């Protein structure tokens, strides 16, 4: 498949993602969550930064609940002006409210967690490649955030949207671990 530019690829990957039948998506979500929860990076992490998934994304709610149940510090992104985001600690998912584009995020009263304190970042994508690069949604929020932390970067992606190589730009931050429904690929050791 010719991948083309990032805009075209985003459009195609959103289409591919939307065509996955709900029963297949449910199995993918379960397998990915199982692999993440069993991974040593998860087990060793004391502070986890994770996104709140939308209906189309890999379901992170088992991870959010797992972090809280295991007594890990759970941080979620809060969108800020200028295309930035902050890690805010939540101790209960009732602290979430609709934010940018209706995505659930921590309420502003949740405490800021410095990026240096984060052990593991779990990152969304539309597509990923075998070099650790991810195709995000085009806002640059994660790339601007990830340069601030030395945390292990784990990207979750359905196998059907993993390619040998995707288009990248100088500011794109590679991830260390790729988790799909069928495998875990360690891309860069930290």
Give the integer mean of the pLDDT values.
91
Question: What is the helix tally?
Answer: 5
Low-confidence segments: none
What global shape is seen? Answer: globular
Give the helices and strands as they follow along the chain.
HHHEHEEEEEEEHEEEE
Largest sheet, in brief, is:
7 strands, mixed
Kindly, what is the distance between the CA atoms of the first and last residues, rounded to a whole number of angstroms? 32 Å
> How many β strands by DSSP?
12
Q: Over the alpha carbons, how many angstroms does the gyration radius reach?
A: 15 Å
Order of strands across the main sheet: 3-2-1-6-9-11-12
Q: Strand share of the residues?
A: 15-25%
What would you call the structural class?
alpha/beta
Helix content: 25-40%
In short:
This protein is of the alpha/beta class and 190 residues long. It contains five helices and twelve strands.
Question: What does it look like?
Answer:
Helices cover 26% and strands 24% of the residues. The chain has helices spanning 6-18, 22-38, 40-44, 61-69, 141-146, and strands at residues 47-49, 73-80, 84-90, 96-98, 104-106, 120-123, 127-129, 134-135, 152-156, 162-163, 177-179, 184-186. Strand 4 (96-98) and strand 5 (104-106) form a beta hairpin. It is globular, with a radius of gyration of 15 Å. The model has no long low-confidence stretch (mean pLDDT 91).
């Amino acid at each position: 498949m010719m991948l083309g530019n990032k805009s075209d690829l985003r459009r195609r990957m959103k289409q591919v993602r939307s065509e996955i039948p709900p029963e297949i998506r449910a199995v993918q979500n379960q397998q990915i969550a199982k692999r993440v929860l069993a991974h040593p990076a998860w087990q060793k992490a004391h502070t986890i930064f994770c996104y709140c998934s939308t209906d189309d994304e890999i379901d992170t709610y088992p991870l959010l609940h797992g972090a809280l149940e295991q007594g890990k510090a759970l941080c979620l992104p809060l969108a800020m002006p200028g295309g930035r985001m902050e890690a805010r600690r939540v101790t209960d998912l009732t602290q979430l409210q609709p934010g940018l584009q209706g995505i659930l995020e921590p309420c502003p009263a949740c405490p800021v967690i410095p990026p240096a304190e984060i052990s593991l970042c779990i990152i969304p994508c539309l597509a990923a490649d075998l070099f650790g690069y991810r195709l995000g949604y085009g806002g640059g929020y994660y790339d601007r955030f990830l340069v601030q932390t030395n945390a292990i970067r784990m990207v979750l992606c359905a196998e059907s949207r993993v390619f040998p190589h995707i288009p990248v730009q100088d500011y794109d931050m590679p991830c260390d671990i790729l988790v799909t429904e069928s495998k875990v690929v360690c891309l860069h050791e930290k």
